[in-house]
């Protein structure tokens, strides 16, 4: 079964709502849970607590909101930086492995052809090393 996302430029809704190759099946339960929680909070706020004269305040001030959002954005920025540094270190390790393998290839080619003193062999060893 093909699980890739198929894109039809004429029908964007089909692409958005297809199940294979998308994250709908893992994200939709969380969306439903968030809507249910929001509905429950709104119901409790309007029907069980407070009245028209004395409403229950469930909000936060703008300063609290800004400090909370700045913490979230900082966390996301640090996480993204950590991912980038990890990728850099993996690529650096792969480059070191490649350099070690090339150095080993040069050493072995020189060692295995050390008895051949001809100009062709010297040129071949120089080509391998460069």
From TrEMBL:
Q: Does the keyword Transmembrane apply?
A: yes
Topology in the lipid bilayer? Multi-pass membrane protein
| Keywords, ordered alphabetically | Ion transport, Membrane, Transmembrane, Transmembrane helix, Transport
Q: Does the keyword NADP apply?
A: no
| Pfam families in alphabetical order | Bestrophin_2
Listed name of the protein: Uncharacterized protein
Cross-referenced InterPro entries, in alphabetical order?
A: YneE/VCCN1/2-like
In its UniProt record, a GO molecular function of this protein is:
chloride channel activity
Gene Ontology terms: cellular component: membrane
Report the locations given in the UniProt record: Membrane
Q: Which residues cross the membrane?
A: 21-45, 65-89
